[in-house]
Amino acid sequence: MIRQVRFDKKQRVVDELVRRIESGLMEDGFLLPGEHQLAQEFNVSRGTLREALAELKRRKYIATQGGVGSIVTFDGVALDQRSGWAQALADSGAMINTEVLRLEAVTRPDLLSRFGTDQFITLDRRRRSTEGTLVSLERSLMPATGGLESLPRVGLIDNSLTITLAAYGYIGERGDQWIGAEPLNAVDAELLGRAEGTVFLKALRTTYDRQNRFMELVESLLDPVHFRLHLQFGEAK
Fold first, then answer.
1. pTM exceeding 0.90
2. Nearest-angstrom CA–CA distance, 165 and 175
3. pLDDT band at 30; cut points 50, 70, 90
4. Fold of 2-58
5. Sheet containing 214-222: order of strands
6. What residue spans define the domains of the chain?
7. Which of 67, 62, 94 has the alpha carbon at shortest distance from 78?
8. How far, in Å, are 7, 11, 17, 73 from residue 47 at the CA level?
9. Chosen CATH of 70-231 out of 3.30.565.10, 3.40.1410.10, 2.160.10.10, 3.40.50.1010
10. Which of 27, 119, 135, 201 has the fewest CB atoms within 10 Å, i.e. the most exposed one?
């Protein structure tokens, strides 16, 4: 009986996702929400959800994205960063509170030759765990064009930068990310409530959209107590 119930739940997930795909609600190239979000939506376990996704993959309704050899984890849980840190943390089930420190227009002459503009919108956010510990500081730069220049006035949609960018036609397609480590300077140390010189992971990610337009440059300082870099190599057998 338990096995039958699990099969029914899996089939319900499969049928609904097939309906969304075939109806055009999920177009080709659509990025599925994370496991945590989908499992909550369908009220199923992650195990059941993974079985449903495996069935959809077998039937060629969905495909996994290759070329991602390294991932960042938060407290051991893999983060899918394609939708940004905030969404990745939410999808992982992590209980994190986000605070917006700054959302305003800035001029960056040093980036003119790289991105063809020196006018940007900056969004600075820091995140803390439910215990109150500050675990990350993130600074995002977006081009002040295509409607994004209004963000300081109108704010984010649903408090989500990913949703906001998509609403203005910016959907991430490709990019690169560098991850290293460096000691916190005085300003960042104060914002993170740490001693100056404390070593944090530093991630620098550049994203371009489906029209090959620059859409976001993100610098993230990550507490190494919680964040890890996980490298995968070779083919699974």
1. no
2. 16
3. low
4. Arc Repressor Mutant, subunit A (1.10.10)
5. 96-107, 119-129, 134-143, 214-222, 199-209, 172-183
6. 2-58, 70-231
7. 94
8. 11, 13, 17, 20
9. 3.40.1410.10
10. 27
